[in-house]
From TrEMBL:
It comes from the Eukaryota. The keyword Endoplasmic reticulum does not apply. Keywords: Signal. The keyword Ligase does not apply. Residues 1-18 form the signal peptide. InterPro entries: DNA/RNA_non-sp_Endonuclease_sf, ENDOD1, His-Me_finger_sf. This is Uncharacterized protein. It comes from Cirrhinus mrigala.
């Protein structure tokens, strides 16, 4: 119930939404190598969530409801965007 409330609040604030699914590979397979999700844990506390924005899936997240943490999130990398950063990285001396 609490997870549903958090998802609802997030969707109202951000324009995004999420849905709990029973099969990552069927619902959000595009985020995994060869369409196969990593090994999932057994137990009712683990929820597979597809996160969307404007009806487009952007992330797949395995969420642990007991510890209230994401176990992992998957995203499809679509290449480097044009970077306009002018400053160089500043490396801390070792």
């Amino acid at each position: 119930m609490m997870l549903t409330l958090h998802v609802l609040m997030l969707s109202l604030l951000s324009g995004g939404s999420a849905r709990v699914v029973s099969d990552f590979e069927k619902e959000c397979g595009q985020f995994f190598a060869n369409g196969k999700s990593p090994t999932t844990f057994s137990g009712a506390q683990y929820k597979q969530i597809c996160q969307t924005l404007n009806n487009v899936d952007y992330f797949a997240t395995l969420y642990d409801t007991d510890n209230k943490i994401p176990v992992y999130s998957a995203y499809k990398f679509e290449g480097l965007m044009g970077c306009t950063r002018l400053q160089k990285w500043h490396i801390e001396p070792q």
